Amino acid sequence: MGGPDTSSETLPAHRACRASRGGLFALTALTCAAALLFLPARAGPPRSIRHAIPVPGHIPDVDAAVPPVQRKILAGVVQPGDTLASLLAEHLSAEEIHQVARSSRKVFHPRRIRAGNAYHVSLENGGLARFVYEIDGDEQLVIQRKNGAFEISRDEIPYAVREVVVRGEISTSLFAAMEAAGEDPDLARRLAEIFAWEVDFLRNLRKGDSFRMLVEKRFRDGRPCGYGRILAAEFRNDRKTWQAVLYEDGKGRPAYYSPEGKSLKKAFLKAPLSYTRISSGYSSRRLHPITKTWKPHPAIDYAAPAGTPVNAVADGTVLEAARNAFNGNYVKIRHRNGYETMYLHLSRFARGIRKGASVAQGQVIGFVGSTGLATGPHLCFRITRNGKPLDPRRLDSAALSAFGPRELARFKARAGALLARLDQKPAGPRGTAVAASRNP
Predict the structure, then answer these.
(1) pLDDT digit string (tens) for 410-436?
(2) Residue pLDDT, tens place only, 31-67
(3) What is the dihedral of CA 371, 375, 376, 378, to 10 degrees?
(4) What is each CA distance from 195 to 171, 190, 191, 213, 402, in whole angstroms?
(5) Residues 187, 215: contact at Cβ < 8 Å?
(6) Would you place residue 30 in the very low, low, confident or very high pLDDT band (cuts 50, 70, 90)?
(7) 365-396 tens-digit pLDDT
(8) CATH architecture of the region 160-266+405-438
(9) Potential cystine with 304: which of 148, 308, 343, 421 (Cβ 3.0-4.6 Å)?
(10) Is the per-residue pLDDT at 406 higher than 90?
């Protein structure tokens, strides 16, 4: 027989574990001590060590970077019937959509999303990182995921802005002249609004009339995206020259003034709508086209396409916003100093226009139609003072506000610098000169 069996297999379990650990500890201690004797010293703090769990069958690369985030942007335009929920349905859960819709009401109500407006979705690794909806040309709704929650804000759209000089000459219409200058016809409407108190753009345009303006042109990703402010403008009409400069008064209120510092805004607009023709003028005796009777026509009829916006010609209070068989849908407004105006045959009223509502000069109060006794879409516009009819074309109203001496000096310095820039030589195509560039 051999000697006694002393292997760990014959020892009690707890003694075997202690023996194994004790031997292992001793061996480890000796190994570490030997290693410390032979390892070179290293100055400075130890380098960080990236730990990765190896994938079976793959040798890990300890120096490999964190996998890059996979990003994707989906751009589109809101279609009829689209909602915030439908636009986010592919990227968020029903619970998340409910959370976002509820929270966004304080910033921008989801029901106000309109067909035709642009939006884009930014994805990271397949999940929603950011949703942007363009509310209008100036603001956007931004929904972005941060730290496991959604942040919702209403931000200004970032544009690159260049100040350019735009020139044109009238041959047929202001719209056509603006298009010939390579600009959006909407810029013609804005130019007409500036000089609406001085120039009757319905009757007084002449071939050869001209305009110049210094305007902020907006760009996104190098593409034109509309216009900012018109900083200065000039319109030459029938041997007269009108100039306007945008200026903020001491209270930060922007308005247009003549080079002498007089406000271009007057008590009454020249007309309640833009770019139409007068189909019937003010007359003491006119044959009514429907009743075939001769009667006074103490009004001006402006022929215009159905749906054309109609503006209040002065600040005032709505006396009536109603309908009858003769006038159709009509609005009656009371102004200061005994003046009242009426706007007849509207297709519909603008939002908020009702009896007792306050309106501002230039505010849209309704839209051209052919309700009541009308042969086609047009606006019948009337004005009275103390109940007596007046010819709107002969109404002459005074300018509103003016500057004090100290403010006037500051204004004239500003006006002179802006108007001088209208003389810049065209440097761009089709009558446009680049004047300056900036990023807001």
Answers:
(1) 999 999 999 999 987 755 545 555 554
(2) 444 443 344 444 443 333 333 333 344 455 555 566 7
(3) -70
(4) 19, 9, 7, 12, 17
(5) yes
(6) very low
(7) 999 999 998 888 999 999 998 989 888 877 76
(8) Roll (3.10)
(9) 308
(10) no
What is the rounded distance in angstroms from the CA atom of residue 379 to the CA atom of residue 330?
Answer: 10
Tell me how far apart the alpha carbons of residues 10 and 115 are, in angstroms, rounded to a whole number: 85
All CATH 3.10.450.350 domain ranges in the chain, comma separated = 71-156, 160-266+405-438
Domain 277-394 = CATH 3.40.50.170: no
Q: Give residue 433's pLDDT.
A: 55
Q: Of 121 and 225, which is predicted with more confidence?
A: 121
CATH architecture group of domain 71-156? Roll (3.10)
Asked if 141 and 84 count as a contact pair (C-beta separation under 8 A), the reply is: no
Q: Residue 293: pLDDT band by 50, 70, 90 thresholds?
A: low
